[in-house]
Amino acid sequence: MAFGSLPTPLGEMTVAVTEDGVAGVGWDDRRRLTERLAEQGLTEVDDPARTAPVLAELADYYAERLKAFSVPVDWRLTTQVQRRVLGTLYETVPYGEVVTYGELADRSGTGVPARAIGSIMGANPIPIIVPCHRVVASNGLGGFSGGTGVESKRWLLTLEGYLQPMLDWG
């Protein structure tokens, strides 16, 4: 696996890319990504050419030049159920749209209850590319474990145009 990172408005973002695709994305958690991928028998390699497309697409996303990722995804850090739920999210909820936890539970056809969908979103190893920030509660934003938490989710949904920018009265 090869690692790369880039600064974002939400903090330094690290990516882990295997020969099959991007397997991990996170804010300041390279050690955790390394450990999880090492459990899969992967060792670290220095391969900037492997990480460059992922970093470029993430940079374009944050710069509002990219609405759909095209880099391949390596699902190896997910279980079969997680893969089905996250794959459904990845394939059916485009930029600027959201789905509730309950709606995603129904769409995935897994029989997983809405509350468990939240746990799957919290364990998503590939946030932003697999857009767990687009999953909301029926009565609000719901939680978010990336970046600085719910404020990062709010920022991402504003970037995508789903939420209106907040007024600064100061």
UniProtKB/TrEMBL annotation:
GO biological-process terms attached to the record: DNA repair; methylation
The reaction(s) this protein catalyses: a 6-O-methyl-2'-deoxyguanosine in DNA + L-cysteinyl-[protein] = S-methyl-L-cysteinyl-[protein] + a 2'-deoxyguanosine in DNA; a 4-O-methyl-thymidine in DNA + L-cysteinyl-[protein] = a thymidine in DNA + S-methyl-L-cysteinyl-[protein]
MF annotations from Gene Ontology: methylated-DNA-[protein]-cysteine S-methyltransferase activity
Residue ranges of domain Methylated-DNA-[protein]-cysteine S-methyltransferase DNA binding in the record: 81-161
Pfam families named among the record's database cross-references: DNA_binding_1, Methyltransf_1N
EC numbers for this chain: 2.1.1.63
Alphabetically ordered keywords of this record: DNA damage, DNA repair, Methyltransferase, Transferase
Start and end residues of each Methylguanine DNA methyltransferase ribonuclease-like domain: 3-74
Family matches, as InterPro entries: MethylDNA_cys_MeTrfase_AS, MethylDNA_cys_MeTrfase_DNA-bd, MethylDNA_cys_MeTrfase_DNAb, MethylG_MeTrfase_N, MGMT_N_sf, WH-like_DNA-bd_sf
NCBIfam families assigned to the protein according to its UniProt record, in alphabetical order: ogt
UniProt cross-references to PANTHER family, sorted A to Z: METHYLATED-DNA--PROTEIN-CYSTEINE METHYLTRANSFERASE
Annotated family: Belongs to the MGMT family.
Protein known as: methylated-DNA--[protein]-cysteine S-methyltransferase
Annotated organism of origin: Planobispora takensis
